[in-house]
Amino acid sequence: MSNLTHRILLGEFDGSSSDDDEITMVQMIMARQYQKFQRRRQQGGHVGSTSGRAWIPRDRVAADQRLNDDYFCEYPLYDEKLFQQRFRMSRPLFHKILGKLQEHDVTFVQRNDATGAVGLSGIQKMTAALRMMAYGTPADSLDEYLKIGGSTAVESLQSFCRGVISIFEAEYLRKPNEADTARLLHVGNQRGFPGMLGSLDCMHWQWDKCPTAYHGFFSGRSGKPTIVLEAVASYDLWIWHAFFGMPGSFNDINVLDQSHLFDDLSAGRAPPAHFIVNGSQYDMGYYLADGIYPKWATLVQTISQPQGRKKQHFARMQEACRKDVERAFGVLQARWAIVRGPARFWNEVDLGYIMKTCVILHNMIIEDQRDHDASDEITELLSSNPIQVSRDITPALVDFFKNNRRIRSNEAHHSLRNDLIEHLWARNGDEE
User: Fold this and answer.
1) Residue 404 class from Cβ within 10 Å (0-12 exposed, 13-18 middle, 19+ buried)?
2) How far apart are CA 358 and CA 335, in angstroms?
3) Whose CA is closest to 414, among 296, 293, 308?
4) pTM, to two decimals
């Protein structure tokens, strides 16, 4: 290819040349190639660079307009109730998330492609991601309504998850700060468990596309590969701690040993909670857990086969409050069917992004639907009856080991549980 031909094909030729015959020849070749491209495009044949991939003339603009008329215009076809049922969130929350995503990632900004055709809108891409998460549907099933290909839908889901985590994780998957801890302690005290910060448990997500080489490592009692989510949930089903990624062959104790639940408490960064139970003073909050967990000062289990009315009453109260985390798992799976059914992704990193995104959106929806009157009432009670919460920042290495011993103290565990048994019986045991 001559230098002149190369310049023409690259679009750098400005018309200054004396070789008219060569210019005419190159122009004819380009015209024939363009005509061939248009014929194959009209016939629905392959026009891209990937062998065997057919181009489909989707009317994305009409699909975008239909989606807007159905849900997002001033007078949409479907009301707010149906919107929340199908998108799992309110319209204002949807627009809030979309606006933040568009500021963060141009993927959700509508653009034109190389041929000048209008691309998918941010609403179409976010709707595709939410439909896959909410209904657990395959990616290619969205094509008929949203006019989005299967591979593009998967890319939209991946971009959506990474964007939500990057933007909202710091706020909606944070560890309890001083105000949060005070609120949790106040509600725990009202429910009969002073010092309670939430309930701890694990959930398994089946991994349908687990590579054969990993089956033995990820398979637990069910015999199927699963990945474990460890979570702490509070009375309002807000998930304060989410640790995901351990193989299903691990039990809850193994997962706890690997998680970062008590890292801040060991390092002295967590706000210690001071409370009194049955006349005894404590300075570490605790979580309600089932019987498999170790007997630590920060974990309070029920009593298996309790003897006597006091212990039976404690067991009923503990098991009732511990259901918070199980209810949170139930709501999470009901709201996002993608984590209820088998995971159909090959990469466990993608599964981690999806699970974390589901938890973040779960907390965002809880905040959006929260009873603000009840929240204001708790705030007023806290301001009039403040709970002492302090923060110790600095720990030396010796303090780190000391804190670890305090967390894992078996003696402190039994002392706390015995005090709780007496406290609950004195509080409302006589009513039985």
Assistant:
1) middle
2) 9
3) 296
4) 0.82
